[in-house]
Structures are given as structure tokens and as C-alpha cells.
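Standup notes, structure subgroup. Blocker cleared on the adenosine monophosphate input:
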Amino acid sequence: MERPTLISKAAATLPVAPNWTRYEQERQSFTWEAARQALQGLPGGGLNMGFEAVDRHAATPRADKTALRFVSRNAPALDVSYAELARQTNRFANVLQGLGVGRGDRLFVLSGRMPELYVAVLGALKNGTVVTPLFSAFGPEPIAARINLGEGQVLVTTDVLYQRKIKAMRAQMPTLRHVLLVAEEGASIYEPDTLDLATLMRGASDKFTSVATQPEDPALLHFTSGTTGTPKGALHVHGAVVAHHATGRYALDLQEHDRYWCTADPGWVTGMSYGILAPLLQGVTSLVDREEFDAERWYSLLEAERITVWYTAPTAIRMLMKAGTELARQHHFPDLRFVASVGEPLNPQAVWWGLETLGLPIHDNWWQTETGGIMIANTAAFDIKPGSMGRPLPGVEAFIVEHLEAVGEAPRVRVIDQPDVEGELALKAGWPSMFRGYLHNEARYRQCFAGELYLTGDLARRDADGYYWFVGRSDDVIKSAGHLIGPFEVESVLMEHPAVAEAGVIGKPDPIVGEVVKAFVSLKDGYVPEAALRQDILAHARKRLGAAVAPKEIAFLPVLPRTRSGKIMRRLLKARELGLPEGDTSTLEAGA
Ligand code: AMP
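Run returned:
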């Protein structure tokens, strides 16, 4: 059946009046200075993310409201009020102070979605300590690489993850001064060279005054993947909190009485900006499910927890679609009023599936680690064009640009004014959650800007109505289940296997997770390409990189295509894998 190209909101009776209804007027009257006034700020012009998210509410009638509700399979639900969260985060900030960890020092968190993670993140922010989340499905290699690049001084993790992923690598993380352990089973822990977080928390005061950080002080360091080299540490400042607050209102339509569920893991930027910060900034009640994806569980949670606003991802939606409509029909979602998705292209079928199955269309939105917050979105009051990422939010100026020949180092671009022309998506610099640098890589940061335009690395087009459509990435980075994976990081680990001579890694399209990591390897002399060796290399990669990053498939090739300057041509590997035209191969090394 041919479906319309627009889901019109004009006729819809929305159960709750949306936060904004006049697109152009709101964009014209909006200023980031005014948006900042909606927050409290600290005496002397200070601004602190942790204070705004937690303490600001603790002196209001919201104090006793549930801020975070933790659910899991095997334990009763745990409700943490804003006042209790303020006390807990105060204790954690005091624990850091007691260890001599202060403003500008770096703390890493590696755990599942447990209360201690949220307390550590918010307490560290109140203490002015810079926070980096790590995905708990990373293997030892990506973890150590990030802690070393970020010069982490403190790590908060669990006893189980410590045993599995840190202990053996500890000596190779020279900056790490303190490891604070949470017992996964609740028992107290003894591990040499670590501290028991529960003991420290018991001994710490629950009174603390947030450190008077300034808007430009660093707050968060998020690692993201590039095509070459090590992961990039994107640095965000406390002032980003203004964007987390404003976009929670504009893009997610969060309102006082919402029960909100963001399914993203805090190990990634969505889980931080919209799983931890934005809902707390809006003073809503936020659900945290400690379990992994399970279609039946998710439908049950949406229903039983009476979720009103749900922020999820295309991979999850496609997995729900795969689980079939029968399962969905066993549940009812009368409270659900707004559903949004981010991280990968959302196919129009998924938008329609939402309407047919949940009773609501899914609102795609776009942003990336570097932007720190949602930039382009389909929002509650406005028509959706299924397949489009929506329109720029207030405070965001988006452009489609084409590259001109560079003069010197800096990129040069031309803005394309006509609609429906493909080009690179660019944003006018100046929104508060824009990253302020790649750690120790000023040159790479400068490459992201052409004058006042930030170049996103994504290809897109804008239609005549101002809606943006994602076309693809302009680089070789892989998006699998919503997670960015740098091919170089995977190739480097593959190359450590004694049999591997060279490795090239691509994203192979997959109907559920978007792309799966596929590796091509050539073998050193004396090794035979056979199934047992393939298994051995896969196991090596999984052990070092973790299941989230390791290749799912490995193919042997006698030799990999390289440019004459020696770079592996991943583009060509991909074209050959997909049976697509090989494009320009003039730089291809002879014989490949
Ligand atoms: P990350 O920095 O890990 O959040 O990944 C950001 C990248 O994910 C973007 O640069 C896009 O390539 C992709 N992405 C994010 N949201 C969308 C979306 N709504 N549609 C298509 N791609 C998206």
C-alpha cells in the first residue's frame, strides 16, 4: 500500500498541548542568552551541570518527586527523589574531595545502568571533575585506550567489570590513581589497589556546595570514533547544560508530569545528554531499566510504568518490528504521548509502524557527539515527513554545503541555497553544547570548521519545506546498533593476531542494526585461510575489543586493495562486498 509522504498533525488532537507550536516565530525570538535565564546559575556567574540537574530542584516542591526510577528483573524497583539524589551526589563529591580529586581532574565511569553510575556522574560534575562515560560492553583494549588518552585519574566501576576488563591492564594505565568499586551483588569488596565505594560513601558528609564552575569550564569528555588514528575525545563545557535543558523542552517536549524513558546507555552521548541530564533538568521522573533489550519486557515497561515520553533508537525499533505486531497488541499504551528516535537513519516504515502499533508516529531527530545535543528534529506540534530527520530547532542554523578547494590548511565551503541538493550538513557555530575541542588534537578540531560553519561529516539534503534528509556519512566510520565504530581501532587489534598481515574493516548493511562490522584480512606467509583460523581471529578480536566493537564477519583475501600511498581502500572493499561500481580506482596500487 502506498503511504502518504506526510503525517499531518493539524488534524490530530494531541493529549497534551506541546511546548511550542509556532515554528518560525519561536526560532526568531529565541536566544541562547534567554535560554540560560531559565536555569538558576551559581553566584558570580557560575554555571554547573550537576547543580542545575539536581540541586536546583531540591529546594523546590519537586524535592520529594522521583527523579530516577531504577527497575531490573531480580530486584524491586528503586525510586530516588530529587532531594535524595542531591544528598547522594553530595556524598560522592565529598568522596572525591577526600581523595584529593577536584576541578578539572578526570573521572571515568564503566558500569551497567546502576544507581551508583548516576550518582558518580552527577556528583563529579558538582565537584567540577570532568566525566567520561565508557560503554560497559567495551573490551579491555578500547577501555584502556580511552582512559590513557583522557588521562583518567579516577575510575568508578564494578567488581565484576574490574576483574574482567581492568585488572590485567591496570599497570598499563599510569594516570589512574583511584579505582572505586561497586559490588554487583551488594557485598563489600576487597581487591588490592582499589577502594570500596559503599564504604567511602558511608563515611562522607551529605552536605556539599557545588564548585563554582564557569560556563566555559570542561564538564564532559566523550570519545567518538574517526576513520583514522585513535578515538577522538570531544570536550564539552558546563555551559552545554543550557542546550540540554532547551532541547529537552523543544525536541522531546518534556513537561512537568512526564514519566520519561530514554533507552540509550549512558556509555554513549545520548545516554548522558538525554538519559541523565535533560530529564533531570526538566524535573521529570525518568525510568532506568538495568536490563538489556527484550521486546516483551520493553512493551511491558512502557505499559506498566505508564511512560509518557519515550526516546529510543532505530535498531531497537526494528527489533520490536521483528518481534511482530501480535506481541505489541497484547499491551496498551494509553499514557504514551510522544516517541522520538535518534542515532541512525529511521526508515519511513518504522515511523508508520509506530503509528500503527503504538498509536503514535516516531519522531526522528539528528545530532552527534560533537553537537552535544539535538540539533534537527521532528517535534510534537509539527507535521512529520517519514524518512526525514526534521527541521533545525530554535537556536540552530543548519546549511548544506559543498567543499571548495582548500587554501592552506582550512577547509573552504560554499553554502548551497537551492533545495534538494545533496551536500555536507553544516551548522553555524555558537550553540552552547558544541564541543570545544578534540583532546590533544587541535589540528583535527580546526579541520571541522570552515569559517563559522561546523562541518558535521554527514551528507544530507534539505527540501523546499526546510526538512533535512540524511544521505550518508562522508567517511568510513561504521554505525552499528547506533554505536559509532572506528575501523582503524578494529584493524589495529586484528593486526595484533600473529596470523594477520593486513586488515581492512567496513560496515556491511544489516536490516536490523544498520551495519555490522565486517573485516577483510590477508594472512602472513605460512598461514592457511581456513575456518578454525577465522574463529581464532574472531575470538581474539572479541576478547580485546568487546562484543560491541568486534567484527561479526571475517573474510580472507590474498591481498587488500591499497592506494599507491599505502592506505587500505575501505571504500573499494565495501563496493566489492556490495557488488557496487568501484568508482575512481586511479590511486589503486597495481595488482590489488
Ligand atoms: P554519535 O556521535 O555516536 O552520536 O553519532 C553521530 C552520527 O550518527 C551522525 O553523525 C550520523 O552519522 C548518525 N546519526 C545520528 N542521528 C541520525 C539520524 N536521525 N539519522 C541518520 N543518521 C543519524
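Discussed briefly. The first strand starts at residue 66 and ends at 71.
Next: hand off to the docking folks.
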